Amino acid sequence: MLQATLPEVFVSISLTEPVVVLKVSDCIDQLLGYQPVDFLSGNISFRQLIHTGDQDIAESLFSSEFSQISGDFNIRLRQGNGHIRCVKGYFTKKLASTGVVLDLSLQDAKSLSQLTPHMMPNFKAMMDNTNDYIYFKDRNHVFTGASQTLVSLTNPSEHWTDLLGQTDYDVFPEEYADIYYELEKQVFAGIPIAHEIQETLDNAGKKGWVDNRKYPIQNESGEIIGLFGIARDITDSHLKQQKIEQLVAEQSAILDNKLVGMVTAKARNITWANSAVETLLGYKKGALVGAPTRQLYVSQDEYEAVGAAYANIKLEGVIRRQCEFLRHDGQSIWVDMHGMVLSEADGISLWIMVDVTARKLAEDALLKSEAKFRALYDSNGEAAMLLDEHGFFDCNKAALKLFGIKTIEEFCLNSPADLSPLQQPCGTNSEVLAKQKIVEAMEIGNLRFEWTHKRIDTDETFPAEVLLSVIELDGRAVIMAAVRDTTESKRSELLLRASEQQLSFVLEGSNLGFWDWDIQSGHVQRNHIWAEMLGYTFEEVQLTTQQWTDFLHPDDVQNAWKSIQEHLEGKTSVHESTYRMRTKSGDYKWVLDRARVVQRDVNGRPTRMAGTHADVTEQKLAENDLRIAAAAFETQDGMFVTDVDGTILRVNQAYTAITGYTAADAVGKNPRILKSGRHDSEFYASMWQSLASTGLWSGEVWNKRKGGEVYPEYQTITAVKSTDGITTHYVASFADITERIRMQEELKNRAEKDFLTGLTNRRHFIELAEAELIRAQRYSSPLSMLMMDIDFFKCINDTYGHKAGDLVLQKLAVVCKEVLREIDVIGRLGGEEFSVLLPETGVLRAVEVAGRLRQALESARVVVDEVNHEVTKPLCFTVSIGVAAMSSVDATVDSMLLQADVALYKAKNSGRNKVVANV
């Protein structure tokens, strides 16, 4: 395209403050669109027209110093129509009577090269047919050559020759032209190669990305006279990488979930573990990788059972078990464990673990108070025995079989030392060491250790694992010893250790490698990035096709060559294959190979093929992480993912099972659909403050199911951040803790309530009385105490039986609750003895309350079956009540109980069914 030549413009500027334009050519309006008077009057500042990206040049030009008095420069000036014009200039500085004067000679950069140069046919063919964006520019940033592909990004242009004589500011939006110009300034400043990933905008308004590289063009004397650039379209790979980074960030939040531990295993060795399972088991980061899973199990039988179940996993799909694991510090914990096949071809399995120790301990606490102990003890497959300070007093059938003894009576005649050889393998006397272990178990509650035992019938010794547990039996602390013969497990453990192996993963990244294959000669050219991608220098890489196959993984050679051959035969438009290549260190990297035939002979046969190598190792590993995370997402705990505004994007099946909301119900909604109304605004403000400051929040929340039921859950919320630290998503996981809270409440009731009457028991009554006494003394409030006893209760038991006695006690509890206030406290101190605490009540008022209570109980009736259970009759009973009041600030609960007890004694001695006050 021919450009009209614009005249040269001269400007003279005084650099002495204030800076003013002294002279300007009349033709400046053709160059910049302003009249000379605009500059001479000061309405337009010449310096303010200089592009912000050229302020370094402006600083040098407008400096009053004489470090450089003349020279050439290239600069961008903003015209009156708002567009940018690229200008070639020459300046001189001189000293005049008014001070330092700057003289400028300015020429439109496009006017310096108007004619299309004669081009070689090969060059023109390349410009017409290349897939890359290729261009040439002179020293003034003016196009002297360009590929046809640039037409799709420039406007106005229909053919690449339309770009000749233009600058970027004539054919690109200014914001893009600024970016391209800055990269070119680096080339003209002497940088051998200017490289940048840059955004593009095509004529349809669609954004893209290119890998833009610019190189200097020099004349024979080494002077830079222009530049050559090539930009490769990487939009697809750029968008794919962005998507991968987003997915990896989202899934890493799932993998690093603090509530759920995860490991992968191969051949029962751990190949990967997330931070949650490392914390759960007390290991440092990375310490579990390569470890055998056997070291996690407390029980060899449990380890073998999990192995047997895993063998049938293809039929069952998922293994679900509750196991006791051993932490790194030696303590044991209980976990709910789910196992599933992650990669059948590689033999890799995924195991998801949730700590249920608290729940297990609560269950065990309940179990202690149940009558099931004996049945469990007798039916236990492992040898179990009971001992106290006098020795063994019981054992189960498994213990008799293990030690070769016929009866329990015969077993109890032996001591722990009798069931052991004289010395243990450590050299210590068995009797001495056994006593030490028993003392240690009594101190800490339970103790697990290895021991060598002996059969009584054959004197044969065998290795065993012993667990000593302190339990409460019939109101006293005894030791239950569980003994397991580990002969077979020891043998298996030795075999297992002999077969242990460790795996490692290598992640490396690099730029794009290039190769150019002359098919007829077999000669291959590669760039240095291709070599460095595999850990070699450029000189170390031999340029033959055979060497390429030597790098390939043996399993990938056939598929790689097949893809190339199909392209050479014209069956595919492009060769694209992903395979593994061996590095200098012997490891393998995943490489994405893309190529096509670039040259054919006169008969159409391929003679030349070129392509690129991209390291996609991280992408492959990320895909594996995505598979792990996808499997982990379907854990037994509820999980959901929201965007940054809180809109639910995904939920798992456990979410539906816990809340009642299906994915169709929840997706697109806010988590507020679960809101129960039990938490105030401060609770949620604190939650969001924690998420904003740390990216994590966890705690107990009361939510509401779809059916309206309010329930408690333990929830963890994790903020998912992009690579630049901006929160993009939130991942929440939660577990329904209704059963755990119910168990806690039940244990609390058992600790504080009398099991027969439901009244406060003696210990808890004393605690409440002491707290109320402190309050009364602090505020000088009255406080009274009643001591109550059922008259002739022994006769009721002897005449009608203990069942009748229990009914009388229960009836008394019901009547007392009806008569007394809510603030009054009644407790059963033992047998038929009860006490009532009356806050804010003086002695006279207390006597009135006691009188009403006595009358109500006298009127009460209990229906009792006769011995033959055929006739019923009403049974009445009476009570005697003693009353005492807090007499001084030095009063104690014990003193008040004593005073009330004295008054009760007087009521009994004066005929019973009376109220007596101790005043």
List the helices and strands and how they pair.
Blueprint (H helix, E strand, L loop, with lengths): L8 E6 L5 E5 L3 H5 L3 H5 L14 H7 L8 E9 L5 E13 L2 E10 L12 H9 L3 E6 L4 E4 L21 H4 L2 H15 L5 E8 L5 E12 L5 E10 L1 H21 L5 E6 L2 E5 L1 H7 L18 H12 L1 H4 L2 E8 L5 E12 L4 E8 L1 H12 L4 H7 L3 E6 L2 E5 L1 H7 L4 H5 L17 H15 L1 E9 L6 E13 L2 E10 L1 H12 L14 E6 L5 E3 L1 H6 L11 H7 L5 H12 L6 E8 L5 E13 L5 E10 L1 H17 L4 E6 L4 E4 L1 H7 L3 H4 L14 H14 L1 E9 L5 E12 L5 E10 L1 H15 L7 E2 H18 L3 E8 L2 H8 L1 H18 L5 E6 L2 E7 L3 H17 L2 E4 L6 E4 L3 E7 L7 H17 L5 E4 L1
Parallel strand pairs: 31-33, 37-38
Antiparallel strand pairs: 1-2, 1-5, 3-4, 4-5, 6-7, 6-10, 8-9, 9-10, 11-12, 11-15, 13-14, 14-15, 16-17, 16-20, 18-19, 19-20, 21-22, 21-25, 23-24, 24-25, 26-27, 26-30, 28-29, 29-30, 32-34, 32-37, 33-34, 35-36
Helix pairs in contact: 7-20, 11-24, 26-27, 27-28
EC number: 2.7.7.65
GO molecular function: diguanylate cyclase activity
Pfam families: GGDEF (PF00990), PAS_3 (PF08447), PAS_4 (PF08448), PAS_9 (PF13426)
